[in-house]
Amino acid sequence: MQPVIALVGRPNVGKSTLFNRLTRTRDALVADLPGLTRDRQYGTGKLGGRSYLVVDTGGFEPEQKNGIVAEMARQTRQAIDEADAVIFVLDARGGLQIEDEEVASYLRRSGRPVFLAVNKAEGLGEQFPASDFHALGLGEPIPISAAHGQGMDELMEVVLGALPPEDAEPLPGEEEGPRIAVLGRPNVGKSTLVNRMLGEERVIVFDMPGTTRDSIYIPFERQGKRYVMIDTAGVRRRARVQGGIEKLSVIKTIKAIEDATVAILVLDARTEISEQDAHLAGMALQAGRALIIAVNKWDNLEQHQRDWIKTQLERRLPFLTYAPVHFISALHGTGVGDLYKSIDKLAAGSSRHFSTAQLNKILADALAAHQPPLVGGRRIKLRYVHQGGHNPITLVVHGTRMDELPEAYRRYLEATFRKALKLEGVTVRMVFKQGENPFVTPAPTRIMKPRTERSRAASRPKPPRKP
Protein backbone atom coordinates (compact mmCIF):
# COMPACT_ATOMS: atom_id res chain seq x y z
CA MET A 1 0.00 0.00 0.00
CA GLN A 2 1.13 3.54 -0.76
CA PRO A 3 1.70 5.71 2.32
CA VAL A 4 -0.82 8.53 2.73
CA ILE A 5 0.65 11.94 3.54
CA ALA A 6 -1.65 14.83 4.53
CA LEU A 7 -0.66 18.48 4.02
CA VAL A 8 -1.99 20.54 6.92
CA GLY A 9 -1.66 24.19 7.93
CA ARG A 10 -3.47 27.45 8.41
CA PRO A 11 -4.86 29.24 5.32
CA ASN A 12 -2.58 30.67 2.63
CA VAL A 13 0.73 29.07 3.64
CA GLY A 14 1.19 27.28 0.28
CA LYS A 15 -0.28 23.81 0.84
CA SER A 16 -1.82 23.60 -2.64
CA THR A 17 1.40 24.83 -4.27
CA LEU A 18 3.29 22.13 -2.37
CA PHE A 19 0.65 19.55 -3.44
CA ASN A 20 1.13 20.46 -7.11
CA ARG A 21 4.91 20.32 -6.72
CA LEU A 22 4.89 16.88 -5.03
CA THR A 23 2.42 15.38 -7.53
CA ARG A 24 3.92 17.22 -10.53
CA THR A 25 0.46 18.34 -11.59
CA ARG A 26 -1.71 21.44 -11.48
CA ASP A 27 -4.69 19.63 -9.98
CA ALA A 28 -5.06 21.96 -6.98
CA LEU A 29 -6.17 25.55 -7.49
CA VAL A 30 -3.52 28.07 -6.44
CA ALA A 31 -4.15 31.79 -5.87
CA ASP A 32 -3.20 34.48 -3.37
CA LEU A 33 -6.48 34.09 -1.51
CA PRO A 34 -6.95 32.47 1.93
CA GLY A 35 -9.49 29.65 2.10
CA LEU A 36 -9.35 28.72 -1.58
CA THR A 37 -9.05 24.96 -0.98
CA ARG A 38 -12.12 23.59 0.79
CA ASP A 39 -12.29 19.84 0.11
CA ARG A 40 -9.64 17.17 0.32
CA GLN A 41 -7.73 16.67 -2.93
CA TYR A 42 -5.82 13.43 -3.59
CA GLY A 43 -2.80 12.98 -5.85
CA THR A 44 0.11 10.58 -6.31
CA GLY A 45 3.80 11.36 -6.25
CA LYS A 46 7.04 9.43 -6.54
CA LEU A 47 10.54 9.80 -5.15
CA GLY A 48 13.11 7.39 -6.52
CA GLY A 49 11.37 4.02 -6.71
CA ARG A 50 8.81 4.76 -4.02
CA SER A 51 5.34 6.22 -4.64
CA TYR A 52 3.07 7.94 -2.15
CA LEU A 53 -0.41 9.47 -1.93
CA VAL A 54 -0.66 13.17 -1.05
CA VAL A 55 -3.79 14.76 0.43
CA ASP A 56 -4.27 18.52 0.12
CA THR A 57 -6.57 20.05 2.75
CA GLY A 58 -8.24 23.38 3.36
CA GLY A 59 -6.94 25.96 5.80
CA PHE A 60 -7.11 24.35 9.27
CA GLU A 61 -8.62 26.43 12.06
CA PRO A 62 -9.40 23.90 14.83
CA GLU A 63 -11.18 26.35 17.14
CA GLN A 64 -13.89 27.32 14.61
CA LYS A 65 -17.30 25.88 15.55
CA ASN A 66 -19.69 27.18 12.87
CA GLY A 67 -19.95 27.93 9.16
CA ILE A 68 -17.94 26.79 6.18
CA VAL A 69 -14.63 27.12 8.06
CA ALA A 70 -15.83 24.56 10.61
CA GLU A 71 -16.74 22.19 7.74
CA MET A 72 -13.24 22.65 6.30
CA ALA A 73 -11.74 21.87 9.69
CA ARG A 74 -13.81 18.69 9.92
CA GLN A 75 -12.54 17.61 6.50
CA THR A 76 -8.96 18.26 7.62
CA ARG A 77 -9.41 16.23 10.81
CA GLN A 78 -10.67 13.31 8.72
CA ALA A 79 -7.66 13.62 6.39
CA ILE A 80 -5.33 13.50 9.42
CA ASP A 81 -7.10 10.37 10.71
CA GLU A 82 -6.63 8.68 7.30
CA ALA A 83 -2.97 9.68 6.92
CA ASP A 84 0.17 7.72 7.75
CA ALA A 85 2.09 10.99 8.20
CA VAL A 86 1.36 14.71 8.30
CA ILE A 87 3.38 17.53 6.74
CA PHE A 88 2.68 20.66 8.77
CA VAL A 89 3.16 23.56 6.35
CA LEU A 90 4.25 26.92 7.84
CA ASP A 91 5.15 30.32 6.40
CA ALA A 92 8.79 31.37 6.87
CA ARG A 93 8.10 35.00 5.93
CA GLY A 94 4.97 35.38 8.04
CA GLY A 95 6.66 33.77 11.04
CA LEU A 96 4.99 31.70 13.74
CA GLN A 97 1.33 32.68 14.31
CA ILE A 98 -1.18 31.89 17.05
CA GLU A 99 -3.12 29.81 14.52
CA ASP A 100 0.02 27.69 13.92
CA GLU A 101 0.22 26.92 17.64
CA GLU A 102 -3.44 25.82 17.65
CA VAL A 103 -2.80 23.48 14.72
CA ALA A 104 0.36 22.13 16.39
CA SER A 105 -1.58 21.43 19.57
CA TYR A 106 -4.12 19.34 17.63
CA LEU A 107 -1.40 17.48 15.68
CA ARG A 108 0.44 16.54 18.89
CA ARG A 109 -2.76 14.85 20.12
CA SER A 110 -3.41 13.07 16.81
CA GLY A 111 -0.70 10.46 17.29
CA ARG A 112 0.48 10.80 13.67
CA PRO A 113 4.14 11.43 12.72
CA VAL A 114 4.41 15.17 12.00
CA PHE A 115 7.07 16.89 9.85
CA LEU A 116 7.54 20.65 9.72
CA ALA A 117 7.85 22.11 6.20
CA VAL A 118 8.59 25.83 6.45
CA ASN A 119 7.54 27.24 3.08
CA LYS A 120 8.59 30.45 1.29
CA ALA A 121 12.13 30.13 2.67
CA GLU A 122 13.91 30.96 -0.60
CA GLY A 123 16.64 33.58 -0.21
CA LEU A 124 16.44 33.81 3.58
CA GLY A 125 19.75 32.07 4.30
CA GLU A 126 20.92 32.79 7.85
CA GLN A 127 17.78 34.86 8.47
CA PHE A 128 15.63 31.69 8.46
CA PRO A 129 13.76 31.77 11.83
CA ALA A 130 14.46 28.15 12.79
CA SER A 131 14.30 28.78 16.54
CA ASP A 132 10.73 30.08 16.32
CA PHE A 133 9.50 26.85 14.73
CA HIS A 134 11.57 24.67 17.10
CA ALA A 135 9.34 26.04 19.85
CA LEU A 136 6.39 24.00 18.48
CA GLY A 137 8.07 20.84 19.77
CA LEU A 138 7.39 18.87 16.58
CA GLY A 139 10.94 18.23 15.43
CA GLU A 140 13.40 19.83 13.05
CA PRO A 141 11.90 22.47 10.69
CA ILE A 142 12.80 21.84 7.03
CA PRO A 143 13.08 25.01 4.89
CA ILE A 144 11.45 24.66 1.47
CA SER A 145 10.11 26.74 -1.40
CA ALA A 146 7.12 25.04 -3.02
CA ALA A 147 6.87 27.76 -5.68
CA HIS A 148 10.51 27.29 -6.78
CA GLY A 149 10.86 23.56 -6.05
CA GLN A 150 13.60 23.98 -3.43
CA GLY A 151 13.93 21.37 -0.68
CA MET A 152 11.34 18.96 -2.12
CA ASP A 153 13.59 15.89 -2.27
CA GLU A 154 15.07 16.60 1.17
CA LEU A 155 11.59 16.90 2.68
CA MET A 156 10.23 13.69 1.14
CA GLU A 157 13.39 11.71 1.98
CA VAL A 158 12.85 12.57 5.64
CA VAL A 159 9.11 11.81 5.54
CA LEU A 160 9.35 8.52 3.60
CA GLY A 161 12.41 7.43 5.57
CA ALA A 162 10.38 7.56 8.78
CA LEU A 163 7.56 5.40 7.38
CA PRO A 164 7.54 1.60 7.02
CA PRO A 165 8.18 0.24 3.50
CA GLU A 166 5.30 -0.51 1.17
CA ASP A 167 3.63 -3.89 1.67
CA ALA A 168 3.43 -4.72 -2.02
CA GLU A 169 4.07 -3.13 -5.36
CA PRO A 170 1.07 -2.47 -7.59
CA LEU A 171 0.40 -5.18 -10.14
CA PRO A 172 1.55 -4.42 -13.70
CA GLY A 173 -1.30 -3.09 -15.79
CA GLU A 174 -3.52 -2.58 -12.73
CA GLU A 175 -6.18 -0.05 -13.64
CA GLU A 176 -7.87 2.52 -11.44
CA GLY A 177 -11.29 1.87 -12.95
CA PRO A 178 -13.82 4.13 -14.68
CA ARG A 179 -13.70 7.84 -13.91
CA ILE A 180 -17.10 9.29 -13.03
CA ALA A 181 -17.52 13.07 -13.40
CA VAL A 182 -20.53 14.52 -11.56
CA LEU A 183 -21.77 17.63 -13.39
CA GLY A 184 -24.46 20.18 -12.74
CA ARG A 185 -25.36 23.73 -11.89
CA PRO A 186 -24.54 25.05 -8.41
CA ASN A 187 -26.62 23.69 -5.52
CA VAL A 188 -28.35 20.84 -7.37
CA GLY A 189 -26.90 18.25 -4.96
CA LYS A 190 -23.70 17.08 -6.67
CA SER A 191 -21.64 16.81 -3.48
CA THR A 192 -24.53 15.14 -1.64
CA LEU A 193 -24.72 12.56 -4.43
CA VAL A 194 -20.96 11.97 -4.32
CA ASN A 195 -21.07 11.40 -0.55
CA ARG A 196 -24.04 9.06 -0.92
CA MET A 197 -22.33 7.01 -3.65
CA LEU A 198 -19.14 6.79 -1.59
CA GLY A 199 -20.98 5.95 1.62
CA GLU A 200 -19.24 8.70 3.61
CA GLU A 201 -19.18 12.48 3.95
CA ARG A 202 -16.20 12.85 1.67
CA VAL A 203 -16.81 16.37 0.31
CA ILE A 204 -18.30 19.43 1.97
CA VAL A 205 -22.07 19.85 1.70
CA PHE A 206 -23.22 23.33 2.66
CA ASP A 207 -26.38 25.28 1.92
CA MET A 208 -24.60 27.83 -0.24
CA PRO A 209 -24.15 27.76 -4.04
CA GLY A 210 -20.53 27.41 -5.11
CA THR A 211 -19.22 25.58 -2.03
CA THR A 212 -17.17 23.23 -4.24
CA ARG A 213 -14.55 25.29 -6.09
CA ASP A 214 -12.16 22.61 -7.30
CA SER A 215 -12.63 19.30 -9.12
CA ILE A 216 -12.05 16.63 -6.47
CA TYR A 217 -10.68 13.23 -7.63
CA ILE A 218 -11.58 10.41 -5.22
CA PRO A 219 -10.37 6.83 -5.89
CA PHE A 220 -12.53 4.19 -4.19
CA GLU A 221 -13.64 0.57 -4.42
CA ARG A 222 -17.17 -0.85 -4.41
CA GLN A 223 -18.02 -4.55 -4.43
CA GLY A 224 -14.53 -5.40 -5.64
CA LYS A 225 -14.59 -2.87 -8.50
CA ARG A 226 -12.41 0.22 -8.67
CA TYR A 227 -13.68 3.68 -9.56
CA VAL A 228 -12.56 7.30 -9.45
CA MET A 229 -15.23 9.83 -8.48
CA ILE A 230 -14.81 13.43 -9.71
CA ASP A 231 -16.89 16.03 -7.89
CA THR A 232 -16.85 19.20 -9.98
CA ALA A 233 -17.60 22.82 -9.28
CA GLY A 234 -21.03 24.02 -10.38
CA VAL A 235 -20.80 25.80 -13.74
CA ARG A 236 -23.01 28.87 -14.09
CA ARG A 237 -23.89 30.99 -17.08
CA ARG A 238 -20.92 33.02 -18.32
CA ALA A 239 -22.60 36.31 -17.39
CA ARG A 240 -22.72 35.17 -13.75
CA VAL A 241 -19.12 33.94 -13.52
CA GLN A 242 -17.31 36.49 -11.40
CA GLY A 243 -13.67 36.67 -10.41
CA GLY A 244 -10.62 34.70 -11.42
CA ILE A 245 -11.21 31.89 -8.91
CA GLU A 246 -14.61 30.95 -10.33
CA LYS A 247 -13.22 31.10 -13.86
CA LEU A 248 -10.50 28.64 -12.79
CA SER A 249 -13.22 26.39 -11.34
CA VAL A 250 -14.97 26.32 -14.73
CA ILE A 251 -11.69 25.35 -16.40
CA LYS A 252 -11.24 22.54 -13.86
CA THR A 253 -14.75 21.27 -14.64
CA ILE A 254 -13.97 21.19 -18.35
CA LYS A 255 -10.76 19.27 -17.62
CA ALA A 256 -12.69 16.84 -15.42
CA ILE A 257 -15.05 16.11 -18.33
CA GLU A 258 -12.06 15.39 -20.56
CA ASP A 259 -10.61 13.03 -17.91
CA ALA A 260 -13.88 11.17 -17.28
CA THR A 261 -15.10 7.88 -18.69
CA VAL A 262 -18.73 8.47 -17.72
CA ALA A 263 -20.42 11.76 -16.82
CA ILE A 264 -23.47 12.09 -14.56
CA LEU A 265 -25.51 15.22 -15.23
CA VAL A 266 -27.40 16.08 -12.02
CA LEU A 267 -30.67 18.00 -12.48
CA ASP A 268 -32.94 19.49 -9.83
CA ALA A 269 -36.45 18.04 -10.17
CA ARG A 270 -37.91 21.09 -8.47
CA THR A 271 -36.56 23.66 -10.94
CA GLU A 272 -36.83 24.17 -14.67
CA ILE A 273 -34.16 22.64 -16.91
CA SER A 274 -32.06 25.58 -18.03
CA GLU A 275 -29.85 26.40 -20.98
CA GLN A 276 -26.87 25.86 -18.69
CA ASP A 277 -27.96 22.23 -18.09
CA ALA A 278 -28.13 21.72 -21.86
CA HIS A 279 -24.74 23.43 -22.23
CA LEU A 280 -23.13 21.05 -19.70
CA ALA A 281 -24.64 18.06 -21.49
CA GLY A 282 -23.30 19.42 -24.78
CA MET A 283 -19.82 19.77 -23.28
CA ALA A 284 -19.87 16.11 -22.22
CA LEU A 285 -21.10 14.96 -25.64
CA GLN A 286 -18.56 17.11 -27.45
CA ALA A 287 -15.84 15.43 -25.40
CA GLY A 288 -17.35 12.07 -26.39
CA ARG A 289 -18.25 10.99 -22.86
CA ALA A 290 -21.03 8.54 -22.07
CA LEU A 291 -23.74 10.42 -20.19
CA ILE A 292 -26.21 9.52 -17.43
CA ILE A 293 -28.99 11.91 -16.38
CA ALA A 294 -29.73 11.90 -12.63
CA VAL A 295 -32.88 13.85 -11.72
CA ASN A 296 -32.30 14.66 -8.04
CA LYS A 297 -34.74 15.66 -5.25
CA TRP A 298 -37.36 13.27 -6.64
CA ASP A 299 -38.71 12.40 -3.18
CA ASN A 300 -42.02 13.89 -1.99
CA LEU A 301 -42.96 15.23 -5.43
CA GLU A 302 -46.58 15.26 -6.52
CA GLN A 303 -47.49 13.29 -9.65
CA HIS A 304 -48.12 16.43 -11.69
CA GLN A 305 -44.63 17.70 -10.76
CA ARG A 306 -43.07 14.42 -11.90
CA ASP A 307 -44.96 14.57 -15.20
CA TRP A 308 -43.81 18.19 -15.62
CA ILE A 309 -40.08 17.40 -15.23
CA LYS A 310 -40.37 14.44 -17.64
CA THR A 311 -41.90 16.78 -20.22
CA GLN A 312 -39.03 19.19 -19.56
CA LEU A 313 -36.52 16.43 -20.34
CA GLU A 314 -38.16 15.74 -23.70
CA ARG A 315 -38.39 19.42 -24.65
CA ARG A 316 -35.08 20.79 -23.36
CA LEU A 317 -32.78 17.78 -23.92
CA PRO A 318 -34.07 16.11 -27.10
CA PHE A 319 -30.52 15.22 -28.17
CA LEU A 320 -30.15 12.93 -25.13
CA THR A 321 -33.01 10.52 -25.85
CA TYR A 322 -30.55 7.61 -25.84
CA ALA A 323 -29.03 8.47 -22.43
CA PRO A 324 -30.26 6.51 -19.38
CA VAL A 325 -32.34 8.60 -16.94
CA HIS A 326 -32.45 7.91 -13.18
CA PHE A 327 -34.87 9.60 -10.77
CA ILE A 328 -33.10 9.75 -7.42
CA SER A 329 -32.88 11.35 -4.00
CA ALA A 330 -29.23 11.89 -3.10
CA LEU A 331 -30.21 12.98 0.40
CA HIS A 332 -32.17 9.81 1.22
CA GLY A 333 -30.37 7.42 -1.14
CA THR A 334 -33.40 6.50 -3.24
CA GLY A 335 -32.32 5.12 -6.62
CA VAL A 336 -28.63 5.98 -6.11
CA GLY A 337 -27.48 2.35 -6.14
CA ASP A 338 -28.96 1.87 -9.63
CA LEU A 339 -26.52 4.46 -11.00
CA TYR A 340 -23.68 1.94 -10.73
CA LYS A 341 -25.43 -0.45 -13.13
CA SER A 342 -25.51 2.26 -15.80
CA ILE A 343 -21.94 3.33 -15.00
CA ASP A 344 -20.58 -0.19 -15.43
CA LYS A 345 -22.58 -0.73 -18.63
CA LEU A 346 -21.53 2.56 -20.24
CA ALA A 347 -17.88 2.24 -19.18
CA ALA A 348 -17.71 -1.25 -20.71
CA GLY A 349 -19.52 -0.09 -23.86
CA SER A 350 -17.22 2.89 -24.36
CA SER A 351 -14.13 0.65 -24.46
CA ARG A 352 -15.47 -2.08 -26.78
CA HIS A 353 -13.70 -3.06 -30.00
CA PHE A 354 -15.51 -4.24 -33.13
CA SER A 355 -14.21 -6.08 -36.17
CA THR A 356 -14.26 -4.36 -39.55
CA ALA A 357 -16.31 -7.23 -41.00
CA GLN A 358 -19.00 -6.77 -38.34
CA LEU A 359 -19.18 -3.04 -38.96
CA ASN A 360 -19.38 -3.41 -42.73
CA LYS A 361 -22.21 -5.95 -42.39
CA ILE A 362 -24.18 -3.33 -40.40
CA LEU A 363 -23.38 -0.68 -43.02
CA ALA A 364 -24.57 -2.95 -45.83
CA ASP A 365 -27.86 -3.63 -43.98
CA ALA A 366 -28.33 0.11 -43.37
CA LEU A 367 -27.77 0.88 -47.08
CA ALA A 368 -30.17 -1.88 -48.12
CA ALA A 369 -32.87 -0.49 -45.84
CA HIS A 370 -32.35 3.16 -46.74
CA GLN A 371 -30.04 4.38 -49.51
CA PRO A 372 -28.45 7.85 -49.30
CA PRO A 373 -30.49 10.44 -51.22
CA LEU A 374 -29.65 11.71 -54.69
CA VAL A 375 -27.75 15.00 -54.70
CA GLY A 376 -27.57 16.80 -58.04
CA GLY A 377 -28.92 13.71 -59.76
CA ARG A 378 -26.06 11.54 -58.51
CA ARG A 379 -26.01 8.94 -55.72
CA ILE A 380 -23.62 9.31 -52.77
CA LYS A 381 -21.65 6.09 -52.30
CA LEU A 382 -20.57 4.71 -48.90
CA ARG A 383 -17.86 2.13 -49.47
CA TYR A 384 -16.70 0.73 -46.11
CA VAL A 385 -16.40 1.51 -42.38
CA HIS A 386 -13.88 0.70 -39.64
CA GLN A 387 -13.39 1.58 -35.98
CA GLY A 388 -11.12 4.56 -35.39
CA GLY A 389 -10.99 4.57 -31.59
CA HIS A 390 -12.86 4.09 -28.31
CA ASN A 391 -14.06 6.29 -25.45
CA PRO A 392 -15.83 7.59 -27.44
CA ILE A 393 -16.57 4.82 -29.94
CA THR A 394 -15.38 6.34 -33.23
CA LEU A 395 -16.52 4.87 -36.54
CA VAL A 396 -14.83 6.05 -39.76
CA VAL A 397 -16.95 5.78 -42.92
CA HIS A 398 -15.23 6.07 -46.31
CA GLY A 399 -17.04 6.99 -49.50
CA THR A 400 -17.52 9.54 -52.24
CA ARG A 401 -19.02 13.03 -51.95
CA MET A 402 -19.06 12.79 -48.14
CA ASP A 403 -19.30 16.56 -47.81
CA GLU A 404 -22.75 16.40 -49.45
CA LEU A 405 -24.15 13.68 -47.17
CA PRO A 406 -27.23 15.19 -45.41
CA GLU A 407 -27.20 15.58 -41.64
CA ALA A 408 -30.39 13.53 -41.33
CA TYR A 409 -28.71 10.54 -43.00
CA ARG A 410 -25.69 10.88 -40.71
CA ARG A 411 -28.00 10.68 -37.69
CA TYR A 412 -29.70 7.65 -39.25
CA LEU A 413 -26.38 5.84 -39.55
CA GLU A 414 -25.40 6.76 -35.98
CA ALA A 415 -28.69 5.43 -34.61
CA THR A 416 -28.39 2.26 -36.71
CA PHE A 417 -24.88 1.45 -35.46
CA ARG A 418 -25.83 2.26 -31.84
CA LYS A 419 -28.80 -0.10 -31.98
CA ALA A 420 -27.01 -2.92 -33.83
CA LEU A 421 -23.97 -2.78 -31.53
CA LYS A 422 -26.12 -2.38 -28.39
CA LEU A 423 -24.47 0.89 -27.39
CA GLU A 424 -27.48 2.51 -25.72
CA GLY A 425 -26.26 5.50 -23.75
CA VAL A 426 -22.77 5.39 -25.27
CA THR A 427 -21.61 8.26 -27.43
CA VAL A 428 -20.93 7.13 -30.99
CA ARG A 429 -18.88 9.55 -33.06
CA MET A 430 -19.19 9.19 -36.85
CA VAL A 431 -16.34 10.43 -39.04
CA PHE A 432 -16.92 10.62 -42.80
CA LYS A 433 -13.88 10.60 -45.07
CA GLN A 434 -13.77 11.43 -48.74
CA GLY A 435 -12.13 8.72 -50.84
CA GLU A 436 -10.13 9.44 -53.98
CA ASN A 437 -11.38 7.99 -57.26
CA PRO A 438 -8.87 5.27 -58.24
CA PHE A 439 -9.94 5.45 -61.93
CA VAL A 440 -8.96 9.07 -62.40
CA THR A 441 -5.38 9.32 -63.64
CA PRO A 442 -3.72 12.52 -62.56
CA ALA A 443 -2.24 14.65 -65.33
CA PRO A 444 1.52 14.18 -65.69
CA THR A 445 3.60 16.90 -64.17
CA ARG A 446 5.73 18.74 -66.73
CA ILE A 447 9.29 19.24 -65.58
CA MET A 448 10.91 22.43 -66.90
CA LYS A 449 14.63 22.06 -67.65
CA PRO A 450 16.91 25.02 -67.02
CA ARG A 451 17.70 26.92 -70.20
CA THR A 452 21.28 26.95 -71.49
CA GLU A 453 22.96 29.49 -73.75
CA ARG A 454 22.58 27.13 -76.74
CA SER A 455 18.85 26.71 -76.10
CA ARG A 456 18.44 30.46 -75.78
CA ALA A 457 20.25 31.01 -79.10
CA ALA A 458 18.11 28.39 -80.81
CA SER A 459 14.97 30.09 -79.60
CA ARG A 460 15.93 33.51 -80.94
CA PRO A 461 14.22 34.51 -84.20
CA LYS A 462 16.47 34.11 -87.24
CA PRO A 463 16.96 37.01 -89.66
CA PRO A 464 15.34 36.60 -93.12
CA ARG A 465 17.53 35.25 -95.87
CA LYS A 466 18.78 37.62 -98.49
CA PRO A 467 17.52 36.96 -102.01
UniProtKB/TrEMBL annotation:
<feature type="compositionally biased region" description="Basic residues">
    <location>
        <begin position="457"/>
        <end position="467"/>
    </location>
</feature>
<dbReference type="InterPro" id="IPR032859">
    <property type="entry name" value="KH_dom-like"/>
</dbReference>
<feature type="binding site">
    <location>
        <begin position="9"/>
        <end position="16"/>
    </location>
    <ligand>
        <name>GTP 1</name>
    </ligand>
</feature>
<dbReference type="InterPro" id="IPR027417">
    <property type="entry name" value="P-loop_NTPase"/>
</dbReference>
<comment type="similarity">
    <text>Belongs to the TRAFAC class TrmE-Era-EngA-EngB-Septin-like GTPase superfamily. EngA (Der) GTPase family.</text>
</comment>
<protein>
    <recommendedName>
        <fullName>GTPase Der</fullName>
    </recommendedName>
</protein>
<feature type="domain" description="EngA-type G">
    <location>
        <begin position="178"/>
        <end position="351"/>
    </location>
</feature>
<keyword id="KW-0690">Ribosome biogenesis</keyword>
<dbReference type="Pfam" id="PF14714">
    <property type="entry name" value="KH_dom-like"/>
</dbReference>
<feature type="binding site">
    <location>
        <begin position="56"/>
        <end position="60"/>
    </location>
    <ligand>
        <name>GTP 1</name>
    </ligand>
</feature>
<dbReference type="GO" id="GO:0016787">
    <property type="term" value="F:hydrolase activity"/>
</dbReference>
<feature type="binding site">
    <location>
        <begin position="231"/>
        <end position="235"/>
    </location>
    <ligand>
        <name>GTP 2</name>
    </ligand>
</feature>
<keyword id="KW-0342">GTP-binding</keyword>
<dbReference type="Pfam" id="PF01926">
    <property type="entry name" value="MMR_HSR1"/>
</dbReference>
<comment type="function">
    <text>GTPase that plays an essential role in the late steps of ribosome biogenesis.</text>
</comment>
<feature type="domain" description="EngA-type G">
    <location>
        <begin position="3"/>
        <end position="167"/>
    </location>
</feature>
<dbReference type="InterPro" id="IPR006073">
    <property type="entry name" value="GTP-bd"/>
</dbReference>
<feature type="binding site">
    <location>
        <begin position="184"/>
        <end position="191"/>
    </location>
    <ligand>
        <name>GTP 2</name>
    </ligand>
</feature>
<comment type="subunit">
    <text>Associates with the 50S ribosomal subunit.</text>
</comment>
<feature type="region of interest" description="Disordered">
    <location>
        <begin position="439"/>
        <end position="467"/>
    </location>
</feature>
<keyword id="KW-0677">Repeat</keyword>
<dbReference type="InterPro" id="IPR015946">
    <property type="entry name" value="KH_dom-like_a/b"/>
</dbReference>
<keyword id="KW-0547">Nucleotide-binding</keyword>
<dbReference type="InterPro" id="IPR005225">
    <property type="entry name" value="Small_GTP-bd"/>
</dbReference>
<dbReference type="InterPro" id="IPR016484">
    <property type="entry name" value="GTPase_Der"/>
</dbReference>
<keyword id="KW-0378">Hydrolase</keyword>
<feature type="binding site">
    <location>
        <begin position="296"/>
        <end position="299"/>
    </location>
    <ligand>
        <name>GTP 2</name>
    </ligand>
</feature>
<dbReference type="InterPro" id="IPR031166">
    <property type="entry name" value="G_ENGA"/>
</dbReference>
<feature type="binding site">
    <location>
        <begin position="119"/>
        <end position="122"/>
    </location>
    <ligand>
        <name>GTP 1</name>
    </ligand>
</feature>
